[in-house]
Amino acid sequence: MSNSTAKIVIRNTGETVETTPGITLFKALRDANIFVPTICGGKGFCGKCRIQIFSGNTSPVTEPEKKKLTDEDFAQGWRLSCQALVEGDMEIELPQDTKDVRLYKAEVVALEMVCRETRRVRLRLMEPPTMEYLPGAFILLDIPPTPEKKQGAPRAYSIATPPSSKNEIELNVKHVPGGFGSGYVHNVLKLGDMVSFSAPYSGYPQTCAVNDLICIAGGSGISPVLSILRHMKETDCARKTKFFFGVRECDDLEYIPELRAMEKELEAFEFFSIVENPGNNADEKILVGRVTDAVASIVNDATGCSAYLCGGKGMLDACCRILVDLGIKQEDIFFDQFS
Ligand code: FES
Predict the structure, then answer these.
(1) Best mutation site among 24, 29, 46, 73 for ligand 1, i.e. most ligand atoms within 8 A of its Cβ?
(2) In angstroms, what CA-CA distances link 323 with 21, 42, 290, 328, 334?
(3) Are 55 and 8 in contact (CB under 8 A)?
(4) 92-103 pLDDT, tens per residue?
(5) Which ligand 1 atom minimizes the distance to the CA of 38?
(6) Rounded to two decimals, what is the model's pTM?
(7) S-S: 162 plus which of 17, 97, 231, 247, CB 3.0-4.6 Å?
(8) Considering only CA atoms, which of 73, 19, 23 is closest in space to residue 51?
(9) Helix, strand, or coil here: 221?
(10) Using CA atoms, how far apart are residues 171 and 165, in angstroms rounded to an integer?
(11) In whole numbers, what is the pLDDT of the chain averaged over residues?
(12) Which domains does the chain have, with CATH numbers?
């Protein structure tokens, strides 16, 4: 190896990437159009970018990694690729579920506000024109540089459409003050623009299992749940399912007519909308309070159930605790956490 080049051999694909030592493994792979999952965009707190390193694992373990990986993980060579530096030649393996991830180009064909802070973006795939994905999958949208932020970066957004929609996908993007990705989607993106993204990441393969399902979403965390429910509806899935959708104010509610219609169409589906501060809203179908309280009071026993959750860390942690108390095994709880 010369001082200016390092070789990364990917054992399970047979590829070799040449890169410059000193950058993160995550960046080296991405520069070579090899995509590793991320929600946080490489900041070290989502834990999604795990990669097993078999040789050349020399850079010191970082604090974010100590929070996401166990001693056993470290002993087996697992690192967060956004934290591990390439310091010389390496041998790695890519996670199995990322082997079909590739780069897509798409056109923005619809944009609309679906509630106070969330913009729905519909993308028509151009190159390649179709994508296979699981219900609840997400994409990494490439956010271009701005005058303030000189380097573009990927941001994770869940797909709301079902897998049958192979040529067009929908995202719901909440506006976050100062947010790099949401600022672009809300203030810059317009109809007819071309965007690029890598996908598909993750997804929920057990959508139509036979045991009961509890879905919980906070705010724009509704997207992957919509994808799952729409898929269940299209495939006449009779799985007994309860969906708890929690928001702060009534103006944050979205997709309510579709979900209430689904309740009538799917015999085994129940929908609960929960609002923390409903103000003067008189809709008697809305439950007042926190989503965690609603789950605890409506679900008496969740033994044998599975759960799918999407939202912020605080809500997910609280919901996981309640679901485990109600009898769900930790390994039957699947979740997507917002960055
Ligand atoms: S991308 Fe590495 S922790 Fe999120």
Answers:
(1) 46
(2) 45, 30, 15, 6, 12
(3) no
(4) 999 877 878 899
(5) 1
(6) 0.86
(7) 231
(8) 73
(9) helix
(10) 13
(11) 92
(12) 6-98 (3.10.20.30), 102-201 (2.40.30.10), 213-337 (3.40.50.80)
Helix residue spans in the chain (DSSP H): 25-31, 63-68, 71-75, 180-187, 222-234, 256-265, 291-298, 313-325
SS3 315: helix
Rg (CA), the chain: 21
Q: How many angstroms does the Cα of residue 78 sit away from the middle of ligand 1?
A: 13
CB 87 within 8 A of CB 60: no
State which amino acid sits at residue 328.
Answer: I
Q: Is the pLDDT of residue 3 over 80?
A: no
Dihedral sign, CA of 232, 233, 238, 244?
positive
CA 207 to CA 286: how far, in whole Å? 27
Closest ligand 1 atom to 36 CA: 1
3-state DSSP assignment of residue 198: strand
Q: pLDDT, tens digit, for every residue of 45-65?
A: 888 899 999 999 999 999 999
| Centre of ligand 1 from the C-alpha of residue 50, in Å | 8
- CA-closest residue to ligand 1 atom 3: 44
Which residues surround ligand 1 with Cβ inside 6 Å?
Answer: 38, 40, 42, 44-49, 80, 82
- The CA 113 to ligand 1 mean position distance, Å, reads 29
What gap in Å lies between CA 165 and CA 139, rounded to an integer? 15
Q: Max Cα separation, the chain?
A: 71
β-strand pairing of 306-311 with 194-201: unpaired
Residue nearest to atom 4 of ligand 1 (CA): 46
